[in-house]
Batch of 2 targets.
Target 1
Amino acid sequence: PFQYDSNAQCVWVITAINTNKVSSPSKICSPRGATTMTDGLSLGQRWVQLGAGEVIQINFEEFDLEIGYDTLTIGDGGEVGDPKTVLQVLTGSFVPDLIVSMSNQMWLHLQTDESVGSIGFKVNYKEIEKESCGDPGTPLYGIREGDGFSNRDVLRFECQFGFELIGEKSIICQENNQWSANIPICICMYQIFYYYYFSYITL
Ligand SMILES: [Ca+2]
């Protein structure tokens, strides 16, 4: 992770060039913090090996922006900032498991205000098959039923004995290549009280 700068405007565009290569993201940063931002992305970048993919999948290893004031907007295609193409506007520390574009391009736009930074974000990106939402993984201590990640595929989740499921029991891959929800989490019964307690005090 990196400490991002205040008053920064940064843009990255990720492009799937052909069936086995994703371009290095092009990036424009202004007015300050250019080098920092580049480092932020390159830290998490992963090159796609091979594949017949045509859309871009990203997932965040780390994410924390000053909630409500610093935002990362993610959009489909190459028209940076076009409101019609916005997929997600992220702030704070809650992020989707995966975000997938519908075209072969995805843009990321970081905007920060004049004060208070945070750790920033670390993102991995790769190319996946089109009309797919990508593999969201399986919850720790959980069991997943279903292994299709294409549009209209459904994944169902259960937790191992002694663990309680928090979140959605099933999720569907929507036509816009986004899962209908994050995968659930499985937590030990004893920890449930603390989970809700801490959720409460952090709100
Ligand atoms: Ca800020």
Target 2
Amino acid sequence: MNTREAASPAAAAPLVELRAAGKRYGNIIALRDVSLEVSPGEVTCVLGDNGAGKSTLIKIIAGLHQNTEGAYLVDGQEVKFTSPREALNRGIATVYQDLAVAPLMPVWRNFFLGSEVSTGWGPFRRLDVEFMRETAKKELLDMGIDLRDVDQPIGTLSGGERQCVAIARAVYFGAKVLILDEPTAALGVKQSGVVLRYIIQARDRGLGVIFITHNPHHAYPVGDRFLLLKRGQSIGYHEKSEISLEELTGLMAGGAELEQLVHELRQVGTSTDEVRVIRDEIEEDTAAGVGHVPVTEAVNIRDLPETEGK
Ligand SMILES: Nc1ncnc2c1ncn2[C@@H]1O[C@H](COP(=O)(O)OP(=O)(O)OP(=O)(O)O)[C@@H](O)[C@H]1O
Ligand SMILES: [Mg+2]
């Protein structure tokens, strides 16, 4: 390959770029016309409700699936990965939500899973346990993760800690792009905070981070750019300076639906005007002989007891 020619456009090119990318599974269009740029030292958040196409998007970037439309570029060059290994070789590491760990193996062993380090030669070749144990401990400490003991089975760590080990591992093995698929989805507030802190750590080390979530409250504090997906299409791609947390929340599919729900609930009768309207309707119905509810008892939801909770 002619590196001199490739060098100049690549110098300014984003680590990862999608240009009007799309993905069809047979007749199903899972993703349509999505563009995205990931630069070093930046966190790009991908937000969207269930079925919005988030996983499809990261599967393309991670090399699991190929885009059927548009282009996927790494360091300014178009790529067609045929396996996650190819993406990994280009420095694109993915931490899936159901972390593929061996729960009974020690933390250090999981840290080096699939990339074990050996020592010795010929028949004397063996795993360099000491090196791997010390390295895992040091790398975790460098990321601010202070585990009591790297010999403990990884299955004994909390979900948040396991995510952090996976992030530290990707950083150690030289990832340039780190994809996190809903790392905070199953976590409580405190654990989510810990994971968000390591996302920032990875960013500060110069990685380009792609953070998938459906929670704008997790995305906003750490994100530099926000891609909003809905039914496979982009409904917004914003830099942080262009958008507030409130707007981000409002743009999310849940936001609009929540507003509709509030509206409907209001109609059921939290405002006196609306109660009056409903009452009038019932009165008319009663006059016409439709209903049999005495008007006085008809509605005033606010006067009802606090629900007969079970
Ligand atoms: N392998 C597949 N074959 C056919 N359709 C698929 C396939 N994978 C995804 N889809 C469809 O593509 C759409 C987007 O799915 P995707 O998994 O990307 O959504 P998502 O945003 O990750 O949702 P969730 O939040 O539930 O994980 C869905 O309608 C889904 O049914
Ligand atoms: Mg998904």
